[in-house]
Amino acid sequence: MTSTPVHALPVTTASPARGGRRGLFGTLARLESLRLARHPVLISATVIGLIATTTALIRSAGPATDEAFVLPDVASTVGIAAMLSAYYLTRSFSRADELLEASPTSSTNRTAALCVTAVVPALIASLWLVIHYGVRPAALAVPEWMYGTFSHADIAAVLVGNSVVAAVGGTLLGVAAGRWWGFRGAFAVLVLAMVVWTMGVLGAFSSSDTAPPAWTRWFRLFVPFGIFTSAAPDNTSVLSLTGSPRWYAAWLVTLCALAAVAALLWRSEGRTRRRVVRAGAVTLALSVLTYGLAVSGGLSQPVRTFTDGHSVVVTK
Amino acid sequence: MNLPRALGATTGVPWRPVALLTASGVGLLLVGAVWRDSPVAGTAVTVGVPLLAAAAAYVLDEAADEAVAAAPTSLRARSVTRLVVAAVIVGLGALALGVVALRSGSSAKAGITVQLVGLALVAVAASAAARRRVAEPGDAVGGALLALVLTLALSHPLDRWVSLFPSEPDLRWGGYVALWAAVAVASIAGLWVATRDPLD
């Protein structure tokens, strides 16, 4: 005998009071969002991320350049946790499959409702942007010369990409993996793939000393985590890296859309499937285009800027 | 040879995820050993250790737990047999960390074994506790542990007070060993309580 997960019951019994299918979809999305918001992994990671950012801002003797230009804590805490929480949320229905198939909602609608839960991690990630642009702690007061060749809008694009877009992308990837990967231990493959993709590429290509410059230019941006500035440890200079931050942020958004398309393809049928496939093809084309523009746009060589404002092009 | 009989009480261990995670963990540690000077080596070790702990989270899974519960053996005896598998996973990880230490010429790398033992004990204690509600808690416990360790390792929220994941000789090893020893003792206590038979 198979038992039915208790979470499946509200989904199968939810009935729209008003608004027909749209009302039912809204009910499903709200239920799933609440479940994700209450997930212990996401809550723990958010607390860890907030502690990490707070201690980094307090501990910093000068400007906290990592927090000001990269915002690394959101992707490494909320992003990873959102991915795993969404994966578990999606898999939690697997044992109630037969029951859910008998419910009046299609599997594509249920997947779409799961995709909508990305709003929750996006809201959590935007807390960091509120700290950055709303609270503006002293450690984030970075002198103008440290922006190097980038404008404030460029840096804002990097921060939004590394926080809100990373959290949304993590959630959508978790839903897609939960839909397609039913084997036990799949969470590890998901995490391993993300870590190898992100940290492996960043580790191998973030420094121009370890890889040919042309490789660095193309591969450094082929990760879902953008680094465009690198401050010297003593804050006496800052290196502006190659590429266009705004097109890079656009590329990240297309990756999120591709993850959503991958999730929605699961058990989609007929006209819905054709529409999802068409949307996927368009998104893929946009993804290739934006990646090309991110790599070919912006600086073609790294530029080092010093405290007095003068800059030199770094050829190697 | 009758494989289930040869495996004895460990027959019910979900070998596929255990093998997948153990191979991934050991593989990453060996990547860290081979490319010891690469920036990727640190990442490989950071991810490899919690993967091995996540593998240990599966050893107490028992799909047929209602049938097994009727067998004339205590829950603790059955759990101890399963813990041998966890010990083998930790042993393989310790060997791989030894290779990392030998290749890098830094004995500090071998000290990461303390972290591995601590994490593996947390994994089996959490699985034992969760097993009272779910027959196969390995997936949830392993994933939660991996997420928790990675978020702590990547964001360093506690570095001001203690080094959770040191890898160099000049870092704060005293606090590190004390912390993981406390975690191990608490996990063993939790494991002891969680493996008590419900009717005792």
Account of the protein in words:
The complex is a heterodimer of chains A (316) and B (200). By secondary structure, chain A is mainly α. Chain A is 65% helix and 4% strand. A 4-stranded antiparallel sheet of chain A has the order 1-2-3-4. The longest helix of chain A has 29 residues, at 152-180. Chain B is mostly helical and 200 residues long. Helix content of chain B is 70%, strand content 0%. The mean pLDDT of chain B is 84. In chain B, helix 2 (15-34) runs parallel beside helix 5 (75-104) and helix 5 (75-104) runs antiparallel to helix 7. The longest helix of chain B is centred in the middle third of the chain and has 30 residues, at 75-104. Chain B contains 9 helices and no strands. The radius of gyration of chain B is 17 Å and the shape is globular. Chains A and B meet through helix 3, helix 5 and helix 10 of A and helix 2, helix 3 and helix 8 of B.
